[in-house]
Structures are given as structure tokens and as C-alpha cells.
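Researcher: Structure for this, please.
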Amino acid sequence: MLKFLSPDLPESERKKFVFLTFIFFLIVGSYWFIGLLKDTVFFKLAFPTTLGWPEGYGRLMLPTAKFWSPFFIVTIVLIYSKIVDLVRRHQLFYIFGTLFICIFAFVGIILFLRSINGNEFIGKNLLAFTGWLAFFSTEAFGSLMTAMFWSFVISISDVNTAKFGFPLIVSGAQVGSITGSACTIIASQLGGVWPLYFVGCFFISLIILAISFFVKKYPTKHIATPKKDLGFAGIVEGIRLLITTPYLLGIFVISTFYEVSIAVIDYQMRVQADISTSFQGELGFSFFQTIYGVTANSCALIIALFATRYLLKRFGTRLCLLIYPSYFAISLTALLIYVYFGSFSTTVLLWLTFTILVIAKGLTYGLNNPTKEILYIPTSKDVQFKTKGFTDTFGSRAALMTGASISNKFKDNIPKLMSVGTVICLGFVGFWALAAIYVGHKYHELRKKS
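Model: Predicted structure, C-alpha cell format:
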């Protein structure tokens, strides 16, 4: 398997990159493990009707939580940016890893006390605060720990080994996401989700120990990393290049508009799961989360391993850019036809949105992301650092917030959420497809010139 994923990786570097792959396996696995728990807490535990909350209040508040999540993450990243110049990169894992262990242990303790003494013992405000804390902290954990890991890896890698070792690390992430998702199935054996938070804390402690062991086995000099020009001036320059260059604006659409549709379909799916009689209660909803996590990540891994190279080689970048929006257009049209002409069955809608989302996730990681990165190759360094940086951070967050706003608009009316919400998604897909056609044609011209 190692030779298949990274056949050209030098023998002297293999053990190091296998170790890094294991560390990233732990990070991504921990995120998916805890990430699937946060929705169960938010939907089923944090806002019980016995304490005066309306029925399904967690479901109704999810779009609001997703809208404000980027602001919380930005706050954590600002704190990170202040600390990063004060300590060595591996020490960041000790600091923030310990912070997240404390947060998730607190969540686990509150949920444990709730399971023993009931909702009234915890109280309405503290239980709600625990739900919000679990949601925002999990989102921050995924963003921050991943960013810290890649900063750490880049600081100890050179260009020659990176291009051969990074695919191995990415494959470890996919396996980690499947493993982390699958592990949540033990909730039923443990009697609830609260013990899983302590298991999550154990996984995070393994990350800290693995990093500590790695820096002892592969010591590196502490070299100050120059900052990229991604401050205010860099952001302004990135925006200027974006709005004055149609090619870059097209890449921006390709990189962000699909996330709007995914955010809406994701909410549609979770709404159907929340009201489904097949996945009632804390353990039922947790079981559905496990099914979704394992299936979506398995699909992404299969596409990444066996389809990405073939599709790019067989059809080229121009056609590959159109595969994803074409799939989305067909699947959303099928969903819309069922909503208007079908029986509006919760079960059918649940598994229809589930299937759409699983394949979409697979195409995102396995095809769309690698293809859109190729589009930056014939551009300048300013574009690759400034405009791409703006698109990947602010653009992506703006897309998720847009999707959350659409979901929030129709959260009180499920039929409208399924019909009008899907129509709006089709509109975004239409602009996305037009951008893909233009960018594919322009990319072909730029490659000819170069």
C-alpha cells in the first residue's frame, strides 16, 4: 500500500512520513469522532422540551450555529496567530491540544451528570451552553488542528520529499475519517454519547504524545518561518486580482458555490433524520451519524484512490470541471421532482438527500478539490498566495454562511425547505456550471501559451 500511494518516496524519508501519516490519522479521526457527536448533542440533548424548549429547537438553531461558527473560528485563529511566534510549532499542539481536552472533558462531565440526575439537575442555561460550546469547539478543533499540522509538516519538509510524501499523509486522513466515524457506533454499548467525549479526549492526548515522540525521534532546528503577505494589504490585493480577472473569479465560483448547495442539502438531510421514526432519541440519531460518516468518507476514499487519476488522465481538466456540477444538477432535479410529485415520505427524502450528499462529499474530496488546485498552476505567485488564500478562507466561510442563511430562512417550513431550498441550490449550480465551462476553456488557452 505504501508503494502504491507514494512509490517515489525516498527510503530514508519513509518512516518519517509514515509517522506523520499516523499523526494526521489521529487528528482527522478525532475530529470526525467528536464532530459526529456534536450534532447529536445539539439536536437531541442540549435543548430538551422538559426544560421549556420548543420541540426540535436544536434542529431550528443549527443554521444559526453554522452561521456564527466562522466568527468563533476566526477568534481562535487570531489567538493562535499571537501565540505562534512565541513558541515552537510542535508546542502549539501541547497548548491547544490540552485546551480542547479540557473543553471536551467538561462537555462529557455535564452530559454524564445529566444522564445520572436528569435535565433538571443541570438546568436549562448550563445544558444549552454545553450544546453551543460542544458545537463551536468541535468546529474550531477541526480547523485549527489541521492548520497546525500542515504548518508543522511544511516547516520540516523540502519540496522534493513533499510531493511524494503528502499523498501518503492525505490517504491517512481519509482512513482516519472512516475509523473515527465508525468508532461512534459504540455509543449504544456505552449507554449514551457522554462516554465518547472522554474517548475523544484520549484520542487527542495520543496526538500530543505522538507529536512529542516525533520531535524527539526526528529533531529539527527551530527556524523562524517568514509570514506570508496575508495581512490586510495582502487581502486587499487578493480581492483586487479576483474582481479584475474573470479567470480567477471563475475559480472563486468553482471553489465556493458547491459549498452553498452542500450546506443546504446537509441541513435537509439532518432535518429528515431528526424527525424520522427510524432514528429517534440520542442513540438513534447517533447511529445515523455513524452511518453517514462512514459511508461519506468511504466514498471519498474510493474516488480518491481509484477514480481521480483515471478521470483526469482520461477526460482532462476541462471535462472534469463539469462532472461535479453536472452530477449536482441531475441529483437536485431528481430531488425536486420527488418533492413536487412524490408522496413526500420522510424516509424516502432522508435516504435521497443522504445519497446525494454522500456522493457529493466523495466528489468534493476526490475530484473537485484536486481539479481546482490544478487551475492555479498557470497563475502568478501573487495569485497563488493572495487570491487563493482569500478564496480558500474567506470565500469558503462566506459560502457556508450563505448556505446556513438559506436553511435558516426555511427552517420553520420543511416543505419549503425541501422545495424552494432545492430550487435556490439549482440556481447556484447553474452559475457554477457556467463558470466551469469558462474556466476550463481559459485554462486550456493558458496552458497552450505556457
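Researcher: Any notable elements?
Model: Confidence is low (pLDDT under 50) at residues 222-230. The chain is about 85% helix and 0% strand.
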